[in-house]
Amino acid sequence: MKRYLVCVFFLALALWSLAGCAPVVRYSPDEIKDFPPEIQQDIREGQVAMGMTTQQVRYALGAPATVNVISPSLEGKPREEWIYSSGVGVLVKRRLVFVDGKLADIYPEPEQPAEKAQPAQSDEKPQDQQSEQK
Fold it and tell me: Which of 70, 80, 99, 120 could bridge across to 104 with cysteines, CB 3.0–4.6 Å?
């Protein structure tokens, strides 16, 4: 009986974790058609970019786990902090800060795609150049 309960528990856990893998559409094509093409693409891919509005971010990521009104910016503009959590809310996945309704900061910063990432600068010369100087 104990072994049966353990199996049922792990099966339920596996199904629960797979439930998050299904794509979720939080908008209709008509709702995003007036946005710039790059914003539409970000929304479809579930990505956010600096300058997005709160509505655009909500379309891209869904509702945040927590919304906090934080102290105004130095210019007196209203600020909000949106927290998106993974799991049962214990692990913070992403923290977004909006200034005057526009996305201004993302913590942690998203990783750059390989084609956008800049190669690291190195002071070392390639092997073939070093051997030519000898």
Answer: 99
